[in-house]
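Anyone able to model this chain together with fe (ii) ion?
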Amino acid sequence: MVDDLQKKLEDVIDLLPPIPAVMMELIQALGDKNIELRALANIISKDPLMSMNVLKVSNSAFYRLPNKVATVEHAVKLLGIKEITGICIACGAYQSLKPPQNVETFDLNDFWRHSVATGVVSRRLSQELEILDHNVLYFLGLLHDVGKVILDRVAHDIYKIVIQTSREENITIHEAEKRLIGESHDIVGGWLMEKWRLPMTFVHVANYHHNINEAPEDNKAATAIISFADRLAWLHYLGLESGFDVTFLTDGEAYSFLEERTSNIDDIDLGRFMQELDSAHEEIDEMTQILHS
Ligand SMILES: [Fe+2]
Ligand SMILES: [Fe+2]
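re: yes, here you go
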């Protein structure tokens, strides 16, 4: 990679707003099975922007709650800890990565749609395979590709060509990035996670989701789930769910790893997974609209 670009990447990462402190606390609180509703509401209430977003999302049409929700504690009670934490983490990441005004970017709506879809599938997979914490898997999925936002911010004109080349030559974005920029979103995403001081699982999943055989042993299973969910999410996006070729999914390193380590992956109905992804569209449309307002 040209030195100039390397320098620009470092500068952009330095200039990004830090991850909201409340997001860190929430990720830690997730590991605590006994966390009380009130304690969670207190964490969120420390951040006025986050509290406002929680109220907006809770009152949105997506949840169809019969009465208006006026306090964070009430929202947590109604929607539950898992759902509220998910909303907060999505809002936090979205806010931190929001482009400055008048800056041209790639299609961020598409980007978040893919991210939420990967999160939703990862959560389902970990539930059905009965491994790892399924809520954490959702956030890992949500954030796995954030390096793309950074690369696009640093070199928007080249990134447009990256996307175009990947479509025209039918190669992955990852390959096109390597060829045209010299650095890829998995590595850049890992730098960002480190700067945000997220747990190592986040750094490793970002770094190795396109190369799971290299992932450190403790985070290999999480990386494999995200990598497999990533493929499913793409397939869904391309609209291939009816009559899709299962070998596209089962051929990769991720599937082989999960087949070796879990007893039931072959029993999962992948077609049903694809259908469930429709709910992710609704979720992200709503979220995008709220955060833009
Ligand atoms: Fe990726
Ligand atoms: Fe992805």
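The radius of gyration is 19 Å.
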